[in-house]
Amino acid sequence: MDWNIITLNGSSIIMTFLFDWISLLFMGFVLIISSLVILYSDDYMFGDLNIARFIMLVLMFVVSMMFLIISPNVISILLGWDGLGLVSYLLVIYYQNVKSYGAGMLTVLSNRIGDVALLMVIAWMINFGSWSFIYYLDFLSGSVEMELISFLVVLAAMTKSAQIPFSSWLPAAMAAPTPVSALVHSSTLVTAGVYLLIRFSPSFSYWLNVFLLLVSGLTMFMAGLGANFEYDLKKIIALSTLSQLGLMIMTISVGLSTLAFFHLLTHALFKALLFMCAGGVIHSMGDSQDIRYMGGMSVYMPFTSSCLMVANFALCGMPFLAGFYSKDFILEMFSMSYVNMFGFFLLFLSTGLTVCYSFRLFYFVMCGDFNFFSSYSMAETNYHMVFGMIGLLIMSVFGGGALMWLICPTPSMICLPYYLSFLTLFVLFIGGWVGYEMAGFSFSDNLFSMHLYPVSSFSGSMWFMPFFSTYGVSYMPLGLGYDATKVFDSGWMEYFGGQGMYLILFNLGSVNQWFQYNSLKVFLGFFVMWVVILLFIIIY
Asked: Is the model's pLDDT at 448 over the cut of 60?
C-alpha cells in the first residue's frame, strides 16, 4: 500500500506499507501480547508514581515495532529500528540506579553498531533507484552490492538479536521492569533482528549462511550452557530467549525461514507467559530473584506455578504444547537438510541443554521446602496479573496447533531413519534427567560446586563476554585517563604550574609573616647587624 505524503514540483514522498501474511500475523501477535502485558502491568506497577509514563513508553515500543514490521523500505525500517533502540534504553534505566544505568549504556551502545550497519545499507542502496528492498532481493542476489548489503543486514540483526559477540547486553537488560522484559523478549526488540533476516533471507549467499549457522549455533550453545549455572530467575529466562534466538537464526541459515517465523510466533507466546509468571513469583517473594530462596511454590502459588510449568514445558518442546509444533518440526527438517556435522551436533546438544535448565528451574522453584523467611505469606490476589496470564496460558496450549494449520496447510513429508526420528525425544529425556540430577547435586553437595567452579565461572559468565564488552573496552581508556591525570593534572604540570607557584608564594608569605610577628626581635637583630657593619667599616 503506497501512501503519498507530499508531492512538490513533480517529486513525491511516498510511504510504503507491506501487508502480507507474515506482517499481518506478526502484528496480530505483537498487539495481543502487548495488550495482555499492559493489563498485567496495571497490577505489577501498582503504586508507581510514574505509571502513566511507563505505559506511554511501552506503547511507543509497540508502535516502533509496528513500523518495523510493515515497512518494505529500509528508511522506514530504520525509523522503527531506532525507535526500539531508544525506547529500550529508556525502559532499562526506568529504575534509576547505577546498575540500571550501566545496563542501559551497554544495551544502547551495542545496538548502535546495528544502527550504523543499517545506515550503511541505506547508503549502498542509493544506486538501486529505491529503498524498497523487497523489489530487489531475487534478481540482484549474487551481485557484489547485494552481498555487501546482506552482510550489513546480518551484522545489524546480530546486534539486535544479541548473537555472539554482542550477547552480553541481553541479560543486562533485565534491569528493566518485568512487564517490559515479557514484551522485549517475546515479540519486540530481540525478534526485530530475526524478522529482518527472514525478510532478507532470499539474498543470502552460501558463505553468509555458513557464517550465520556457526555464530547462531555457538550462541545457542553458550546461552543454554550459561543458564544451567545461573541463579537469577530473570537471567535464566533471558538466556533461554538467547538460546531460542540462536535456534531461529540457525533455521534461517539452512533456508527454512518460514519455519523460523513459525517458531518466532510460538516462542513469543510461551516466553511472555514465562516472564509474567516469573514477575508474579518475584512480586510475591518481596522482589527477590534468587531461585535458591524459592521452593515449594506449587503449594503457595498454585495457579502461577501451573502457568510457569506449562510455559516451561512448551519451551522444552513437550508434545502438543505450542513449542512442540515448531521445535520438533525444525529439528526434523534440520535432520533432513544438507548441514555439516558440527551444526547438527550443536543444535541437538543445545536442545538438550534447554530441557536441562528448564528441569533445573522446576527443581529449584517447585520442589522441596520454601527457603525464604519462615513466617512469610504469599498470595495470588492480583487479578489483572492473573487475567493476563490466563490469556497467554490458553494461547501457549492451543496456539501451536492453530498456527500449524495456518502456516503449513499442506503437511510436509518427513522421511527419516528410525534412530534419527527418535533422536529428538531421546535428547529431551536425557536433558531433563541431567538437569534434575545436576540441580539435586548442587543443592546437596558443596564439593560438586567446588570441583565445577572453573567450568561454572566460564560458562556462567557467558564465556567472559560481558568482561570483553564492558571492562575490556573501558579498562584501557580509563587507565590512560588515570595516567594522564597523574602526570599532567596532578603531576609535573601541577608541580611547575598552579601548585608550585602556590607553594613558593605560601613559603615567602610565611617568612614575611614570621618577620611581622617577631618585630621587636627582628628590629634589635637588624640594629646589632648595622652596628657590626658600621664598626667593620670604621676599623678598615
From this structure: no
Window from 34-38, 218-222, 399-403, 435-439 with minimum mean pLDDT:
435-439
Contact partners, residue 210, CB within 8 Å, separation at least 6: 253
**Closest of 359, 369, 231, 377 to residue 295, by C-alpha:** 369
CB 77 within 8 A of CB 118: yes
In the chain, where are the structural domains located? 17-204, 212-444, 453-490, 498-539
Count the Cβ atoms, other than its own, within 10 Å of residue 15. Answer: 15
| Residue pLDDT, tens place only, 147-166 | 899 999 999 999 999 888 88
Residue with cell 553458550: 222
Check if the beta carbon of residue 395 is closer than 8 Å to that of residue 33. no
Is 89 in contact with 108 (CB distance < 8 Å)? yes
pTM over 0.70: yes
Could you identify the residue written with the cell 525461514? Answer: 257
Q: Is 335 helix (H, G, I), strand (E, B) or coil?
A: helix
Burial 102-124 (b: 16+ CB within 10 A, else e): ebbbbbbebbeebbebbbbbbee
At a CB cut-off of 8 Å and minimum separation 6, what does 376 contact? 286, 370
Q: Which residues contact 524 (CB under 8 A, 6 or more apart)?
A: none
Instruction: Give the bridge partners for 8, in sequence order.
Output: 11
